[in-house]
Write a structure and sequence with these properties.
By secondary structure, this protein is an alpha+beta fold. The chain has a single domain (about 25-150), classed as Hotdog Thioesterase (Thiol Ester Dehydrase, Chain A), CATH 3.10.129. The chain is about 25% helix and about 35% strand. It starts with a helix and ends in a 6-residue tail after the last helix.
Length: about 150
């Protein structure tokens, strides 16, 4: 492989472009309806992968956070704008950024693109929870320190 294809194949978990994390996602048959168009709910799954890989790239894996820090994240709110459809075999980029970093909440902006064309945009509010009580919990200082350089707030 040469060019962009080989560059991407080595970084399937994604990469950062400035403060934005880019996670490639291929559209498979299971993601589509009978017409070969991505079923609307699957964009939420693609976005979840993007947020997970964003954290993993910062060495804040979900299981690690739970096991070592008693912390987990849960989606509280999502606003989605579906602009254009993705189709079977498309290679998409899920672009994730932190719009606002609060005490126990993160506002994350996400876009799903095919090349330079935006297909879906969303704002996702994520809350930090204590993994035992499932009550909201402030982010610890070291996690805030890791996330702050990627925050636009």
């Amino acid at each position: 492989m040469t060019g962009l294809a080989s560059e991407r194949s080595g970084r399937l978990a994604g990469w950062f472009e400035g403060g934005v994390h880019v996670c490639p996602v291929r559209v498979y048959y299971e993601d589509t309806d009978a017409g070969g168009i991505v079923y609307y709910a699957n964009y939420l799954r693609f976005a979840e992968r993007g947020r997970t890989e964003f954290l993993r790239a910062l060495e804040l894996g979900q299981q690690q956070l739970r096991d070592e820090n008693g912390l987990m994240f849960a989606v509280r709110r999502v606003e989605v704008d579906y602009e254009l459809p993705a189709r079977l075999d498309d290679l998409l980029d899920v672009r994730t950024r932190i719009v606002h970093l609060g005490g126990a909440r993160l506002e994350m902006g996400q876009e799903i693109l095919r090349g330079e064309t935006r297909l879906v945009s969303m704002m996702v509010q994520v809350v930090s929870l204590d993994s035992e009580t499932t009550r909201a919990r402030r982010l610890s200082g070291f996690i805030r320190d890791i996330l702050m350089p990627y925050s636009q707030s």
